[in-house]
Every structure is written in structure tokens, then in C-alpha cells.
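In response to reviewer comment 3 from the previous cycle, which asked for concrete evidence that the modeling workflow produces usable outputs, we include below a single protein chain processed end to end. The sequence was submitted unchanged, and the resulting C-alpha cells are shown without manual editing.
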Amino acid sequence: MAKSPLIVQAAKIDGQTAQKYLIRALGAAIFLLVAWRVITVGLAEGYPTSFWISQALNGLVLGGVYALVALGYTLVYGILFMINFAHGEVMMIGGIAGFFTLQFALARGWMEGPWLVVVAALLFIMLVGMAASVVIGVALERLAYRPLRQAPRLVPLISAIGASLFLQYSVLLIFGVSPHSYRKPELISGGLRLGDVFISYTGAIIFVTSVLLMLALFFIIQRTKLGRAMRAVAEDRSTASLMGVDVNAVIVVTFVLGSALAGAAGVMLGFHNTVVKFNSGFVPGLKAFTAAVLGGIGNIPGAMFGALVLGLIESMGPSALGIPTEYKDVIAFTLLVLILIFRPSGLFGEVLSEKKA
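The workflow returned the following C-alpha cells.
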């Protein structure tokens, strides 16, 4: 005897509800286990407060870099509904361009002049890095993504992965495998010491600059005509085109904005870590993607918040869990898996049009 459709539907609903409660229970168990481990390690190790403050400051610096790159992911995803996995390499290109511009400035003696000259030279280096990233980002959009705009979702994703590998190995063949070392000018070397807490000048510059750039982007998106056009294209490309919006131009500008932020991150990270090489954008790019997913893909405030949270977790997590710092990457990508399992829409929720969703 065939079962009634109502009975089948009720059984499906009960199964989904049970699965939902099971996932929640599993999430609560993992949270309690992590909390127990953190408390146990904290009591056993007895780290001073200054240690945690220093770790938190390092996390905010990392989070600022991740945020600039994550905004590029979330901007492109919000409009094209694709993940630009070559975005980490766009950041790396900015760092490489910044390195050679720094060598030019050092040869001209700009880095040893009055502080105004040094500041102007640093701004020039960052602008060149941002410009190089913009050129690469726009070229990717025009050559690798625009011809595939009407293709199934998997096709642009494969194209993005191919573009990522192409950029990595192009830089490897042109500039070599050896890392390129940034040389900090005296103006930004060292830092401030507040009691037992040390704040590096480059770290403070990265965090402040990242916040300013993020606020500028948020203002552009929310308060300008260009931002309204971007939001319209993100909502419905066809309708926006009928209303007179140049969709192709808006998409190009989206890549320009995201690439410029990634280039700035590449230059600042080069000064902070003092080295850049052909694959230095791969792992930060993946972590920025993790931050975008953590905050809610397509959600600009979510990307900012998720990046800062990820930076703090990556910086403080190994010490809090009592494991070597080499496992910080494991913590970051484990967090990505957990977010995809327990809250795939992210902490702030995805921002997608109903048509895309």
C-alpha cells in the first residue's frame, strides 16, 4: 500500500529537524571541548596579561591584511556570484611591484631623506603596488572571466584556479624562486613599548590604513552613485542594464576596487614581514576567503569582522590551545570547515539577491 504524500512530507520534515538538532548538539559539544581545553591550558601555563595583549595586537594586524583581501572576494562574489581564487596572487603582484619600487626609491636616496620625503616615497610605493594589482585584476576580468560569464558556475571557478597557478609560476619564472627582501626605512622600523607590550610601527600602520581603506570602500558602496550602480548590478544584472546601468563598466570597477585593496595589503605585508615571493599570496588568499565565508560571503561588514576574528583566532589560538604556532594554518582552515558545516551563511549572513539565492 502506497504511503500518503502527507505522511512522506511529514517524515521528511521530521528527518530534517532531527538532523538540524544533531548538528546543533555536535556544534555545542565541539564548543565545550574547545572551551575546556582553553581553560585548562590557561590555568596550566599562566601566561601574563601582556602576552595576550601582544597576541591580540598581532591578530588585529593579520586581520587588517585579511580584511583588505577578503573585501575583494566578497565584492566579486556579490556581483558575479563566483569566487576569484586568483585574488591572493593579485595581492602578491602588488607586493612584488612594491619591492621593485622600493629598490628604485632606495637607489634615489628617498628613504634616507627628511621624514616628509620618506612618507611621500612610501605612499608612492603603495600606489605603484595598488596600480600593478589593478592592472592584473582588470586583465583577469577581461580575459579569464568575462568570456565565461554565461557559463555554468563551475567553469569560472576552474578558470580562476588556472589563473592563480598561471600568475604564480609566471612570477616564479620571471623573478626567480628566491624571496625578495623589503628594507624598512628607519622611520617605520622599530616600534613603541607600552610596559611589557611592544607595538611595531608597521603593524600599527597596517591596522590604521586597513581600517581607513575599509571605511572608504564602505562609503563608496553606500553613499555614491557608483555604489548604487554596484548594488543594482548585484541585485539583478538584467534589470540594472535595462535601467541604463553599464554592467560591464560596473564589473570592471568592482575588480579595480578589490584589486587596489589587495595591492595595498601586499605592499604593507611586504614591509611587515620583510619578504615577498611568487607564492606569498596563496595562503593569505585562502585565509581571506575563509574570513569572507566566516563573516558571510557577499557581506562587506561581515568580511571586515570575519577577517579580524580570524586574525585574532590565528594569533591567539595556538597559545590558548597549548599547541605549536606552526599549527595556526590548521586552526584557520579547521574554522572554515566548521563554519561550512554549522553556519554556511556566515556570522552576519550572506547578502545575495533572491534571484541568485
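The beta strands are 180-181, 191-194, 197-200, 275-276. We consider this sufficient to address the reviewer's concern, and the full set will be provided in the supplementary archive.
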